[in-house]
Design goal:
By secondary structure, the chain is an alpha+beta fold. The protein has a domain at 6-44 and 107-177 and 270-371: FAD/NAD(P)-binding domain, CATH 3.50.50. The chain has ten helices and 20 strands. The protein has helices at 14-25, 50-58, 62-68, 108-122, 166-170, 235-243, 250-256, 299-316, 322-352, 359-371; strands at residues 6-10, 29-34, 45-49, 70-72, 74-78, 86-91, 103-107, 125-128, 132-137, 142-146, 151-154, 156-159, 178-190, 198-203, 206-213, 218-226, 262-272, 278-279, 282-284, 290-291. The chain has an eight-stranded mixed β-sheet. The chain has a six-stranded mixed β-sheet with strand order 8-2-1-12-19-18. Helix 1 links the parallel strand 1 and strand 2. Helix 1 (14-25) packs parallel to helix 4 (108-122). The longest helix has 31 residues, at 322-352.
Length: 374
């Protein structure tokens, strides 16, 4: 029998839904509490590395993800010149195993929709319009109250509510995401025929110019610059100007930026909760516990791994004990820390203009680690 019989999960993103699927499949009664009043249908692209795909296969959704997304196993480096000269085509490390692509891009709302349907099929309940305002842990259970006046009681509460986690704050963990000094423009546009994998250009007016196919007909393109105050409505103009220095597929991407492209701008941030991620029977996972710039594209993978490891431990144990929490920390802390530090280090090298940084060495070391299952 699992250590818990009834679990509340705050947040209907990838981490929360993954935990819901695995726990519900094991016979645990699961309720996902989402503050939004309905499923979110807007967003940009997401890059999923092989170790994320490995978890998605465990969740039973790999076939749907593969059909909706665009998988590939090579990476191209291009020169920051008007021709977009190809400098190298690199075989990427398949961190999910040789039978999965090294990387897959897809539309983020499609991933959430697939996971949401799977969670409900597994027996989990997803409740919308449920902003959790009060959490009380009495040592044997957790009682929550929501802004609409409702209340519920669970054996365990999982905070999977993202960067600005209300659960994290409520349990007295003070770490908050901090800017790293970079900002990113993202645009969701039509896929040029030539784009069949991620291409990266370092240098020029931006630190990084890149794009990732997200399906047969779409990509998300991104430009990374020094963080500054920007307005989303200026996106088409600013991205077109910044991208003017880059050739190859960027020529077609630029022409699509002002044709109804969905564009947003955010700053890179990072944080890591270095102590235990739980306080009694309340625990945080995913972006609530750790976040990093997308320089190594591991944010979603780390969130999915957190959910899978936590669910595995809860299902295997008879009781929620300090031993369970120690094992969770032992399996997640070092791995998440390595990802956060590598992501921040890559960005800092670019900010500092370090020209002899051992980027290949750092990436190879991290990928070798991540190839081992969480």
């Amino acid at each position: 029998m699992a250590a818990v019989q009834r679990v509340g999960i705050v947040g209907a993103g990838a981490a929360g839904l993954a935990a819901a699927i695995l726990l519900a499949e094991a016979g645990v009664e699961v309720e996902v509490l989402e503050k939004a009043t309905e499923p979110q249908t807007l967003g940009s692209g997401i890059t999923l590395q092989g170790n994320a795909l490995r978890i998605l296969r465990t969740l039973g959704v790999w076939e749907q993800v593969e059909a909706k997304g665009y998988g590939f196993s090579t990476l191209v480096l291009r020169a920051p010149n008007p021709d977009g000269t190809v400098l190298a085509v690199l075989e990427d490390i398949k961190t999910g195993g040789d039978d999965l692509p090294a990387t897959l891009g897809m539309y983020r709302p499609d991933l959430t929709s697939i996971l949401r349907d799977r969670a409900e099929d597994a027996g989990a309940t997803i409740s919308y319009g449920k902003a959790v305002t009060v959490m009380t842990d009495d040592g044997g259970s957790v009682t929550i109250r929501t802004a609409d006046g409702g209340s519920s009681r669970y054996d365990l509460l999982i905070g999977a509510d993202g960067l600005h986690s209300a659960v994290r704050k409520a349990i007295g963990i003070n770490e908050e995401p901090q800017p790293t000094g970079m900002g990113i423009w993202r645009a969701f546009v039509e896929r040029p025929e030539e784009v069949v994998r991620t291409d990266l250009t370092y240098g020029g007016p931006c630190f990084i110019a890149g794009y990732c196919p997200t399906g047969p007909n779409t990509i998300y393109a991104y430009l990374v610059e020094k963080a500054q105050e920007r307005r989303h409505e200026d996106g088409p103009k600013v991205m077109t100007e910044l991208a003017a220095a880059y050739g190859g597929p960027w020529n077609e991407i630029r022409s699509n930026l002002d044709h109804g492209a969905r564009i947003n701008y955010t700053w890179f941030t990072s944080h890591l909760v270095e102590g235990p991620w739980n306080r009694g029977r309340i625990v945080i996972i995913g972006d609530a516990a750790h976040s990093c710039p997308p320089t190594v594209a591991q944010g979603a993978a780390m969130a999915l791994e957190d959910a899978a490891v936590l669910a595995e431990l809860l299902i295997a144990a008879d009781h929620v004990t300090e031993t369970l929490w120690k094992e969770f920390a032992d399996r997640r802390m070092e791995r998440a820390t390595a990802v956060v530090r590598a992501s921040v280090q890559l960005g800092q090298w670019m900010l500092d203009g370090v020209r002899d940084a051992d980027v290949p060495g750092l990436m190879n070391s991290l990928s070798t680690t991540l190839k081992e299952p969480a």
